[in-house]
Amino acid sequence: MNEAIAFDTHRFVKRLTKNGFTQQQAETLADEHVALLNGNLATKADIEALQQATKAGIEALRQATKADIEALQQATKADIEALRQATKADIEALRQATKADIAAVEAKIEAAKTDLLKWMFGALIAQGGVIVALVKLL
To answer: What gap in Å lies between CA 65 and CA 60, rounded to an integer?
Structure first.
């Protein structure tokens, strides 16, 4: 048995028998003390095993975190690319809508210009007629 600490059972038994315990009682009590001490204390090997397990756990966590970060980076890049494509499509749709709106406004301006010219020529002809009529009357 690997003992966590050195325990002098012979000295322990001698002291107990000197103070009134029987040999069998003292040996049983010494065995139970050794078992209790060894069961509740960590050995150097226990600590080294715990260190190794902790190191392995930390390494596994580091690897998992690294993989998670890489996956998150890839997902973020994909999201950015999707957003870029969507924005590009929205800009193109806005550009087309703006072209259509500009064409409609230009058509209205052209129609207004035509109407204005009709009215101006009509008014000019009417003024010319009034002037001719006034010149003839006078």
So the answer is: 8
Same domain membership, residue 94 and residue 71: yes
Query: Cβ atoms within 10 A of the Cβ of 20, count?
Result: 8
What is the reported pTM?
0.48
Residues 104 and 63 both lie in one domain: yes
On whether both 50 and 21 belong to a single domain, the answer is no
CA 32 to chain centre: 56
Contacts of 31 (CB under 8 A, 6+ apart): 9
Structural domains counted in the chain: 2
Contact by Cβ (8 Å): 41, 4: yes
Residue 30 contacts residue 9 (beta carbons within 8 Å): yes
Alpha helix stretches (DSSP H) within the chain: 9-18, 23-40, 44-137
Q: List pLDDT tens digits, range 1-46.
A: 455 567 788 898 999 899 998 999 988 988 888 888 777 777 788 8
Query: Are 75 and 114 in the same domain?
Result: yes
Residue pointed to by tokens 């301006």: 109
